[in-house]
Design brief:
Elements: H1 3-20, H2 26-35, H3 39-51, H4 55-67, H5 75-86, H6 91-103, H7 111-123, H8 127-139, H9 147-159, H10 163-175, H11 184-196, H12 200-212, H13 220-232, H14 236-248, H15 256-268, H16 272-282, H17 287-299, H18 314-318
Helix pairs in contact: 1-4, 1-6, 2-3, 3-4, 4-5, 5-6, 6-7, 7-8, 8-9, 9-10, 10-11, 10-12, 11-12, 12-13, 13-14, 14-15, 15-16, 15-17
Length: about 325
C-alpha cells in the first residue's frame, strides 16, 4: 500500500471510528467485522441499514466502495454514500465529501464546495477537516483569504493533537503573516511539540529555530539533530538545512561533499532552489568531489529506527 493510500485509509478509519463507537446492535456488529477486516460481512450488515438511512452505515459503505473492499471499487458510489451521510449531518462524511471535492476524486474538483463541507466538519471538531480548511483560508483557496480563520482552525486542530497543524502554526509565527506578527517563542513551542512526536515539518522547523537562535539559544548540535531527523523522514527542508550547515561549517567542519549530497537529495525531491545551490557549490568543487557527492546521494537511505509521526491507523482506532 502506498504512503498516500495508507493516509487515506487512516483518515477513513478515524471517520468510521468516530461515528460508530457509541452505537450498538447491527451497526456495532458491522464495526466489529470492520476491525477484523471481514469486509463481506461489513457489507452484509451495513447495506440494509444504509438503505434505510443510517448515516454511520452509509459512511461504511462509502469506505467499502472507495477502497474496493468487499465490493468492486466504485468512486461514484462511494461519493454517493458519503453524500447521503453528510446530508444528515454526519461530521465524518462531511470530511470525506470535502476531501473528494478538494482532490477531485469521484467528483469534479471544486474547492468552494470542498470548503463548504470541510467547514461543516470542522465545526463538529474533526481535526483533519480543521487542518485542511485552515490551509484553504491561508491560501485563499475556495474561500477568501482570512488569517484570523486560518489561526482559529489550525489552533483548534492542534488542540486535538494534529501535528501538521502544530507545524503550520510554528511556520506562521516564525515568519509572520498578514495580521499575525512574528513570535519566535510561540513558533518554537509549536515546532517542538510537533517535532517531539515525529512530525518531519516540525523537526525541520525546530532545526531552523536552533540554527538561527530564534526563540531559544543558538545551538548547531541541536539544529543538526533535528534537521537529520527531518531528513530521515524524507523532508527536503531538513535536507537543505543539513546542506547549509555543512557548506558553512557552523558547528561542524566544512564539508562540500556532504553539502552537495544534501542539496542534491533536496533537489531530487522537487526543491528547485536546492538544485541551484548544488550547482553553485559545484563550481567550487573538484570533479572527484562532485562524483563522491553524487554517489553518496544515490546510496543514501533513511536510518532505521527513527521515529515518524503516527497516522491514525485503520485497525487500531476502530476497535
Amino acid at each position: 500500500m502506498s504512503y498516500l493510500s495508507s493516509r487515506i485509509v487512516g483518515v477513513l478509519c478515524f471517520s468510521i471510528c468516530l461515528t460508530a463507537q457509541a452505537l450498538a446492535g447491527p451497526i456495532e456488529d458491522a464495526r466489529e467485522a470492520f476491525a477484523k477486516k471481514d469486509f463481506p460481512r461489513v457489507l452484509a450488515l451495513a447495506q440494509p441499514l444504509a438503505e434505510t438511512g443510517d448515516p454511520s452505515a452509509q459512511l461504511m459503505l462509502g469506505f467499502l466502495y472507495e477502497m474496493g473492499q468487499g465490493v468492486s471499487k466504485d468512486l461514484t458510489a462511494a461519493v454517493n454514500w458519503y453524500r447521503k451521510a453528510a446530508e444528515q449531518g454526519n461530521a465524518s462524511a462531511e470530511l470525506q465529501i470535502g476531501m473528494k471535492y478538494f482532490s477531485g476524486v469521484g467528483v469534479e474538483k471544486d474547492h468552494a464546495e470542498a470548503a463548504r463541507w470541510l467547514e461543516k466538519a470542522a465545526e463538529q471538531n474533526i481535526p483533519p477537516a480543521q487542518n485542511l480548511i485552515a490551509i484553504m483560508y491561508e491560501n485563499g483557496d475556495g474561500v477568501g483569504q482570512d488569517m484570523a480563520s486560518t489561526i482559529k482552525w489550525f489552533g483548534r486542530s492542534a488542540e486535538k493533537g494534529n501535528l501538521s497543524a502544530m507545524s503550520s502554526l510554528g511556520r506562521i509565527y516564525r515568519y509572520g503573516s498578514s495580521g499575525v506578527p512574528k513570535n519566535y517563542d510561540i513558533a518554537f513551542g509549536f515546532f517542538q511539540k510537533a517535532a517531539e512526536q515525529g512530525h518531519a515539518g516540525g523537526q525541520a522547523g525546530l532545526g531552523e529555530m536552533y540554527a538561527g537562535g530564534y526563540g531559544t539559544k543558538q545551538d548547531y548540535a541541536e539544529a543538526m539533530k533535528w534537521f537529520r531527523l527531518a531528513a530521515n523522514n524524507n523532508d527536503r527542508s531538513g535536507m537543505i538545512g543539513l546542506a547549509y550547515i555543512y557548506e558553512s561549517g557552523k558547528g561542524v567542519p566544512k564539508d562540500a561533499v556532504e553539502a552537495y549530497k544534501w542539496f542534491n537529495l533536496a533537489a531530487d525531491r522537487g526543491y528547485d532552489y536546492a538544485g541551484k545551490r548544488r550547482d553553485e557549490l559545484a563550481t567550487r568543487m573538484k570533479p572527484e568531489q562532485i562524483s563522491e557527492g553524487q554517489r553518496l546521494a544515490r546510496e543514501w537511505k533513511p536510518e532505521p529506527g527513527k521515529p515518524r509521526a503516527a497516522v491514525s491507523g485503520l485497525w487500531s482506532n476502530i476497535i
